[in-house]
């Protein structure tokens, strides 16, 4: 959908901001460009909507060489969200969002209708916020309007330059999660600039890690974290990349253990193979759990004694969420359910299995595992 072919940008003062860049972003893919300040991320992005012209090379959007497209026409196909959103201060939130469709010839009433839908989509109730002016919004709310406005003309491509950079970390995480949900629904082709590796990892289908004017690695978040291409990337992603991997490694069915299971209408079992059992309803959906001790002491059916299960997640949730859920509920394990059904029980994830899952996902990084073993052996040798 977006393709760079040997693109170089030299500014008039001789600065080479981007040096012989080639990469491709597939339709519906979200690629994050991450790297330290001044490495050429913004220059890369601004060349896509022709705010900056390349010195060499070609850029294609949807198969068309953009050097042959009128910049105004081109920008209609490309939504643009920046840190300083640049909302019109004298227009209401609804008018701000409706501006672009209106300019494109959509009738006023229709444009406002569409704007209200978009505000809803970015989590702003149009009945509450539609008539407010930008100064009456929080920073996070302004960014949401910025995203809604960029989507207003329904462009296939979105360019986002540190869109959540100016808000505090809590709001930022909230906006990121909302944006991920939104992206699931609209599936735009997105180039997203950030200098924050956490943000790049959380949002990107793939990450381009920039060195000076060049891409040092272009891979999925888990590969960048698990197998950095070189020392520069390893340094940039940080020594805690093992921890960061938790957030990009999903719980898979193969990671789960199968504990004893009882059903709601069963008579209380006197013996269980473990200290507890999972309680399911007639459709094998998760209902709760029961301890062996409780079952032994009680009488009647499981239904009367089952406890609610608070610690559960759908399969595919991240290991980080699993760990957080265990801590939040002070739980020794969490139940994992099917994400597409009413909550069909699949198994449980224990801390030991979580650890194994993390090792599985790191297995690609054979180089580092070998190094860790050497270090362990050395420690053992010193001790003996
Ligand atoms: N108009 C310009 N004239 C000369 N040099 C420029 C110009 N714009 C940017 N540069 C230089 O080009 C390099 C890349 O800048 P760019 O803005 O693309 O980096 P960036 O990775 O987006 O940085 P940041 O994260 O700080 O925004 C920098 O060295 C910058 O100083």
TrEMBL record:
Signal peptide (UniProt feature, chain positions): none
Keyword Metal-binding: no
Chain ranges of the ABC transporter domain: 2-237
EC class name: translocase
GO CC, one annotated term: membrane
NCBIfam families tied to this protein: proV (TIGR01186)
Protein name per UniProt: ABC-type quaternary amine transporter
